[in-house]
Amino acid sequence: MRLADTTSLPAWRRPKALLMLMAAIMPVAFATWSALLNNFTIEVAGFDGADIGWLHTVREIPGFFAVGVIAIIIFVREQTLALVSLILLGVATALTAQFPSLAGILTVTMLSSIGYHYYETVNQSLQLQWLSKAEAPRMLGTLLAVGSGATFLAYACIVLTWRAFDLSYDLVYWFAGGLTATVAAACFLVFPQFEAPHPQTKRMILRRRYWLYYLLQFMSGARRQIFIVFAGFMMVERFGLDVHQITALFMSTLVVNMVSAPLVGRAVGHFGERAALMIEYAGLFLVFLLYAGLYVFDWGVWMAAALFMVNNVFFSLALAIKTYFQKIAAPGDIAPTAAVAFTINHIAAVFLPAALGYLWLTSPVSVYLLAAGMAGLSFALSTLVPRHPVPGHETRLARPLAAAE
Q: Is residue 288 one of the residues assigned to a domain?
């Protein structure tokens, strides 16, 4: 069904409804896996910093090969691939606790990561194809809020039931993964296949005029990996938080994100991508410096928790990278470039977790100082984003200085 014809459908069967439903069901599996991961690997599998680094390196390998999506969409619609990927994510999550060893956890993690990363790749493409440039910042903020809300409910269930009913890792993983897989399968029956107005190029492309977008993606992936791998792990290893406590921290963060994400989307639409990215990277630079200070000055668990929440708010501004690309891209470039960009985003993610896992064993401060340096470099790159990016004016260097902003 063409997008132009979807107005005849009830609201709950339109493309935006599918985007919101997928945004809601993906975190049920992924957020539950993440919430239990640090406690599960430490308490059951006996992981140390090096092991958790290897786990996250394996988890990011499918992201590095996300460019393979281009070959798959030659034969499979992006919408279908997104739902199949969600089913794989759900099934692999359900099986996580069945293999409580390094080799077993790495294998299941690889499978769930294929589902997660291939879903994220095509989901970003579908968002930019199905949403107009005018509504994209606001709607992307709404989708972030929907995902945060679903994640909040998953965390709330863990907090309220983990100790009260003496739940096991096995049961929680089975329920969360099974729910995601079941709802994704049901979407095949409920929603028609939507046809975007612009056919997508189904081959790998690298365009010189997208160079700044590629660099922003690379730096975003490197920075984010340090936070994802070590921020939560630090809360358990250094401060001894239990499952219900670390999940409560995640919930508090989500409440903030549920409120701030729609506002962030509107702010990006109003002030532009350059301002949003500069604020994000300046904030992250300060946050990572303060993370390092936790080890130097021993500020305690409450400071660590506050930094964790603030960090997530700044990360939500990253939606500006998506809308920046949407404004400079040729319509047919969205799907293949989303796959290429996802691979670029994960170049550092493949080697950083394992390498920094060993550095973590001797100097956690150095890990966070490295992240601060990356945020500083990202800030410098963000100053090159035009106030009003369009094809032909992708960076502030793309015009003579006299015409530049």
A: yes
